[in-house]
Amino acid sequence: MSSIESVLETADSNTDAALERLFALLRMPSISTDPAYHSDCVATADWLVAELSSLGFDASRRDTPGKPMVVAHGGPQDGPHVLFYGHYDVQPADPLNLWKSDPFDPQIEERDGAKVIRARGAADDKGQLMTFVEACRAWIETSGALPLRVTILFEGEEESHSPSLVPFLKENAEELTADIALICDTGMWDTQTPSICTMLRGMVAEEIIIRAADRDLHSGGYGGPAANPIRVLSHILASLHDDQGRVTLEGFYDGVREVPGELAQQWESLGFDAEEFLGKVGLSVPAGEQGIPALHQIWARPTCEFNGILGGYTGDGFKTVLPAEARAKISCRLVWDQDPLAIREALRARVHHLLPADCEVEFIPHGADRASVMAIDNPAFEAARQALADEWPKEAVYTGGGGSIPIAGHFKQVLGLDSMLIGFGQDDDAIHSPNEKYDLNSFTGGTRSWVRVMAALAK
Amino acid sequence: MSSIESVLETADSNTDAALERLFALLRMPSISTDPAYHSDCVATADWLVAELSSLGFDASRRDTPGKPMVVAHGGPQDGPHVLFYGHYDVQPADPLNLWKSDPFDPQIEERDGAKVIRARGAADDKGQLMTFVEACRAWIETSGALPLRVTILFEGEEESHSPSLVPFLKENAEELTADIALICDTGMWDTQTPSICTMLRGMVAEEIIIRAADRDLHSGGYGGPAANPIRVLSHILASLHDDQGRVTLEGFYDGVREVPGELAQQWESLGFDAEEFLGKVGLSVPAGEQGIPALHQIWARPTCEFNGILGGYTGDGFKTVLPAEARAKISCRLVWDQDPLAIREALRARVHHLLPADCEVEFIPHGADRASVMAIDNPAFEAARQALADEWPKEAVYTGGGGSIPIAGHFKQVLGLDSMLIGFGQDDDAIHSPNEKYDLNSFTGGTRSWVRVMAALAK
User: Fold this and answer.
1) Domain Peptidase M20 dimerisation, which positions (chains A, B) (predicted)?
2) ipTM of the complex
């Protein structure tokens, strides 16, 4: 451990220079969604290549039809091997007038007695990816080498739907495959409690369009005998949940597992306050499955949600139309081993079952991804958790995520890799918003955390 | 009866001149909704005043904040008294390129072996109102006087929501009140079968907006515990009908009567073909209350229809949003003695009953009108029906109407008058559309019909 302590000392002593490097990166407006910033994105990739090369990485810019990837290899050629992922592109900065200073001129600011770095991309994801780079630097500067084999992949299109990512992973699968992936694009449970996200929900999404008459009808002339698609659609949607909030599709819960006791205990220990969580958005009562705690509802239970509905006249005033069609967008968040395609079929079967005479349905599929559930019995998880626990005031916890983080699914599906999602962001980082910030503590503690996690995974 | 026969002969012999007068009226572009035609509307009113004055009516143009009314009085000062209503304004004629000739240059055309008058307003409503004027002329030319007291009201804003009508009726209630109103703005059952429309449905309309969270939420972060307004709304809408198609609101059917046996027999005799009726709009099976014939569903049964629904993301593609609100426009067509306000309250009570925790509802009322059910035991109805039957090949029938004709309601509410809706339009007249036409047979037979109805009502 003396070795780790000295590496941590190096990391600490590097803080001012590390901030200068981060600020240089933050000054580059690498907005991937706006073509006007394309050359800035390329320059940012080049900057990262130079930075990694200067540390001894075999680093290169890898052009794609979109923004370039940065790939770098370092460390011993055998033994444990990690793939580290981050993204160097950022969200647009508008509305600019809400920023306290130029979003691409990073500033250190004092907030509530703590220092924060304010800039676009500070937390999402430049500050985070630099925690890993600075940890690598500390290892190399202290001991002359990385403690384990490292492949780095920095993407430049995460904020614009990653069109080049899956093709790139497929074309370079052999080069990029490691023992496990480290994804640094998430947050801590709170400022005291580090976390590894080990469960992400999948999703199957479907649009259904119900059609009846071949034109809109007047409810005076046809109201009564004419089928009404809004009524048919409402009936279908209302059939999808029972009065306990459970989804009624046949086979829907196939593959849903109980949360293992130990994991449930960890979650319990987080002291999640459902009332406070819901209170922030004007709600108070968990509306999902009865008898299931709210945190489990988000992390470990599937849903069937209605994301959009449209039919008939929806402008001001009133029009007594019987619409020719009505449509809804439906998505199911999936957990554990639920099969998205089987659930899509069950949904379609339900619609057909409830479809009355004279009505037709069109289905438009919108994606189907399984949940990502990491194999936490892989010793790397417990090793990383212990390493994080050594750094921060409170025990590190395995958490879940209610949404999908596509990259974790891609690593699993294309490279066959489980991912450890370890990040140091905070809930109030305002990513994608004006005055985005990253706690200085997240940056320095994140760097120190990676020093420890690398050591732990090297064993 | 010899007197009627001679009046009918006069009417017949006047046909060519009557057509010239109608054509003069049709040449005036009295489009009420377009301010550019305001002076044409005024000129049309003046033309009608002159026409009626020349027949001996005490006729005058009565200006309003909108288009002028035409009011005329004629006939004996005592005995039966009818108020005749028509409107001289017309719909805009666009799209002009679809007309076979100038919409304001009326033409006689041969269609399927019968002559029709093609022009904007031929059927709606200038041709129709002139049938009554020509019948008056025939009476006056033949016997020197009208057979009963007649008040005429011609409106110039029917095609633009009649903003001046109710105030005008209220201000001139004493002058306009008669024993019964005759409204000539509807059609025959078919070319052989005249009809009197005696039942019009009323309506109560309501918009409901369900709100939950104070912002749109991401279904990854909140899907599960967060209330979903689309789901709440669907549940409410789906609760409004049972599996027999009946509306489940408390007290909804209070005031709904059985169709009297004799009336039901008349309707039966019409040979209404539900399959053909629905087939024209791509449907085949009456979707309303089970066990109720389609014609009864339209004319004599109430509905609860959904006219519009909107919530969440409805554009292309998919967005996993849990919307902050969802809204629906709901309208109930009402029959007999149903109380629109009681039904509105029942609907609101249902919504409140089904509203879960954390959800709020806003109601926007959109009008509430009782059904118009004429007192057909008033002997005038049977007299008019006999008169029509004498003129046409088939028995005249009492029909219903699934929609509302506001003027009938206004006459009832402001003047206390039942209305006889007698008109000679045909289903294929293309009112409001290019190449609007009025059958020459409708014009001549309509004129002859009014000769007979006036005689019948004079008794």
Assistant:
1) 207-358
2) 0.89
- Percent share of chain B, pLDDT over 90: 94
Mention every residue, 6+ apart, whose C-beta is less than 8 A from residue B242: B248
By the CB < 8 Å criterion, does B126 face chain A? no
Tell me the residue length of chain A.
459
Residue boundaries of the structural domains of chain A: 2-200+371-458, 202-256+302-369
A328 touches chain B (CB under 8 A): yes
The H or E element that residue A73 is part of is strand A69-74
Number of A to B CB contacts under 8 A, please give it: 279
Fold (CATH) for B202-258+271-367: Alpha-Beta Plaits (3.30.70)
Whether residue A222 and residue B298 make contact (CB cut-off 8 A), yes or no, is yes
pLDDT tens for each residue of A231-266: 999 999 999 999 999 999 999 999 999 999 999 999
Q: What is the pLDDT of residues B114-127, one digit of tens each?
A: 999 999 999 999 99
Q: What is the DSSP letter of A257?
A: -
Nearest to B320 among A307, A312, A314 (CB): A307
Strands (DSSP E) along B28-106, which ranges?
A: 58-62, 69-74, 81-87
SS3 assignment, position A452: helix
Whether B271 shows a pLDDT value over 50: the answer reads yes
Q: Does domain B2-200+371-458 have CATH number 3.40.630.10?
A: yes
Partner-chain residue, chosen from A214, A220, A314, that has the shortest CB–CB distance to B308: A314
Per-residue model confidence as pLDDT tens digits over B169-184: 999 999 999 999 999 9
Please give the CATH architecture assigned to the domain spanning A202-256+302-369.
2-Layer Sandwich (3.30)
